[in-house]
Design goal:
The protein contains five helices and nine strands, in the order ββαβαββαβαβββα. By secondary structure, it is of the alpha+beta class. A four-stranded mixed β-sheet has the order 3-4-5-6. It has a three-stranded antiparallel β-sheet with strand order 7-9-8. Strands 1-2 form a two-stranded antiparallel sheet.
Amino acid sequence: MAVRACRNRGGEERLFQKDFPPEEFKERRGKIMDAIGPDACTLLQGMPQVRGVYRFRQSNDFYYCCGVEIPHAYLLIDGRDRATRLFVPAFLSEGEGDENALTLEDTDLIKEFMGIDEVLPLGKLMDHLKMSRYSTSPTAQLRAGPRRGTRRSAQIGSGLSTRGMGRYRANRGS
């Protein structure tokens, strides 16, 4: 697969992932949607930008689900309408300030290369969450098995399992 690139306003080349085709990410997210069911959604948080001279690296689980390497991004996988929405922090129209911010053109490329249904500004995330009833649950761990001392409660698709369920249930008194 070829490297896909575009240039930001500063002329710096920004590369999109080249490891997997969009269909692979759609299939992975489809397995998650099947697992959570038609009445649920899941929200994945991307890694924050690290200060200093360190090169940004996205979290493994976030990258596994969408291939996006944008700091402070959130991925909403919605089983209700089987859609995937990416929320990004810097979202500008042409002619505005920050040279590293995403433009509308970039969002079209993200949709195409990563198979994302919608790319929205981070400020819209709360609007989407307000439309849902939600509760917190243990963190899902992708690809790897459960940690030692925890109960394996689910094995979905190619390795999605829950982590820490025993501890979570114990805290709830069940």
